[in-house]
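Example A, followed by Example B.
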Amino acid sequence: MTDYSEKNILGIDSSTRRLKLGVRFGGDRLIKAEEEMEQSHSRLMIKKTDELFQSAGMEKEDLDAIVVCIGPGSFTGLRIGLAAAKGIAVAYDIPVVGVDLFEIAVYRLREHMEPVRIIVPLKRDEFFVTVIEDGQYSRDKIEVVSEKSFREYVADHAVAAYGLDLSEKFPGLSNSDLSDRIQYDATELIYLGTNKLNSGSIGDLAELEPLYLMKSQAEINFDLRNKK
């Protein structure tokens, strides 16, 4: 089995309006970039990826693998990120692995012993929520919680959110807020992806999809267009 610990790996995260990219090369060197998006991820992603390779003195054919964030998050952004990752993977015959936001939270909170509710915005008044407990979480236990029932759901447990200021959204919330501890960049994405690659967790490229629990309007429209 190939050891990817010192291989050249590209990390792509387009799950939010903040594009995160990184490339590890030369065994232990890493260059990363983040930029707020005002328009399409795709155009900026191509430009920023090319800039990363130039800074690293690399060409795309020097890559050994790709790690891509599979969300949950923006339907359009995730699709663009996955399309870019799959396109490069097919062109250069290299593997791709997906890492989701809850896996990143598990890693970032690995030294926290108590259960934590992890929150990811879904719609204006709905959130994906799951529980990290004993250093793990289950995809089967990700729930969609409404703003109205949020306080009851989290009760007095510790919370941590991506892309959401909990104190602003829920004034007076007294729960321990660990949101700052789950923030991440391409470093964590590439690290977790490398572990998956080394464990042999490389699935069929065609089956690599965003992490969704319910279809967004964008996804419904996407399906309708493909049926025509």
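Example B, a separate protein, is given below in the same form.
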Amino acid sequence: MKIRLEIFEGPLDLLLYLIKKNHINIYDIPVASVCEQYLQFLELMKLLDINIASEYLVIAATLINIKSKMLLPVEHVEEPVQEDPREELVKRLLEYQKFKEVANFLKEKEKQRLRYISRSTTDVASQEVFFEASIFDLINAFKTALKEVPREIFFEVVKDEFTVEDKIHDILHMLILKEKVLLDELFSYAKNKLEIIVIFLAILELIRLKEIVAIQKELFSPIIIVRRDYTELSTPLKDSKII
């Protein structure tokens, strides 16, 4: 089952996400660490059968190439100072970051204008504002859930069969009984690794179908799952800024 999401971000978004999440100076990226985390995300995407664009693999190759250059011994000869192998990547990230900031600024202005035109009677200023979680926030939560499953469960014979359709029904039913549920809570019901994967695929499918929204009170905080009509009626959303 291939998952195609409108919220899906690109490889530079993933790099900026890792830089922000790890509080890294963009001008001094520890390439070995970031490369390892980047490749872990790609492995999880493959595990979930998420379609990976070729651009992700190009950036992966770029990171590996930079990493190899930085591992080479420095020759102490009188030559012009060599460029930092990370320099070109940093330039691309900074340019992309500026583009994203402008796009987010225009999008926010559009939202403000639409609220003004609609003349909503709801006092938006008094409401709690949430960020919409990015796909990378969701994958990171998924990775954490897999780590917390006891190792012996990975090797047990799975007798139960779980389907994405069944989990979609379960999640929607849960959101009828209560307005919102923590993503960690959904994962806590899983009996094994397979069920965690199916729950996560169901969440991605519901997001694609615009049935639910994954939100956060602040960047990198616990993810909350709500029905989309809940956010439209009562919860102003801000775009998740990667950096």
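On Example B: The chain is about 55% helix and 5% strand.
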